[in-house]
Amino acid sequence: MPSPLEKARRDPASMKARILAAARSLFGEYGYHGVTTRMIAKEVGIDVSTLYYHWGEKQDLYEAVLTDLNDEIRQQLGEIERLVRGRPLDYRLAKAIDIMCDYLFTRPEASRLILFSYFGKTRTDAVLDARMTEHIANIAIAMGLALDKEHVSPEANARVLAVWNSVINFTAGNDFFKSLLKLDQTEYASVVKESLKFILIPAFTRNQGTAVF
């Protein structure tokens, strides 16, 4: 029997999908503890009883949001790995920065959900934590910092986190930083990408002959 998340994905216009989208936006804005089922129901324009019928408790809905986000990130990383396999390291980094920035700038709630999972723990955040470990390992392999998931060093993980956290912070803080720099959205996204490449690519390629396994 398909899960509520699978049903929502199959029919983006369904009530389940509408509730999921509203929950993702609100959880990304206020965090798990700052959102109530009444807030989500009001956002969709339904009764709380309808929300419970389609998704159950708030924790069930939050876990579905995280699972959906995790699967999206995995898909993006798979696309990066497909595009950069066998290419020079500077190309791999540039492509990874472009793809992840484009993905997160169009989904600002995704960055905030990840940050909330860092600093505002709930019982369900362990789901995202475990999967983020897998994501980091996959990036390390794609960047040529490790041979496989069983041989990813702490140094390789830390270097991946340096890239990942830079992208997350620039996208999560989009409105504040964009205003600070006095740029429109298109200009800001371009400046962020170029700045990350300017800082990170030389740092990663400086000792390119020395692998970190």
In short:
The chain is an all-alpha fold and 213 residues long.
Gyration radius over CA: 19 Å
Q: What form results from the Cα inertia axes?
A: globular
Could you name the ranges where pLDDT drops below 50 across 5 or more consecutive residues?
none
Average per-residue pLDDT, rounded, comes to 87
Query: Topology as H/E string?
Result: HHHHHHHHHHH
CATH topology label = Tetracycline Repressor, domain 2
Task: Give the tally of structural domains.
Answer: 1
Going by CATH, what is the homologous superfamily?
Tetracycline Repressor, domain 2
Strand % is under 5%
Structural class: mainly alpha
| CATH domain class | Mainly Alpha
Question: What's the story with the biggest beta sheet?
Answer: none
Number of helices: 11
What's the architecture, going by CATH? Orthogonal Bundle
Distance between the termini: 43 Å
Q: Can you give the helix content as a percent range?
A: over 70%
Total beta-strand segments: 0
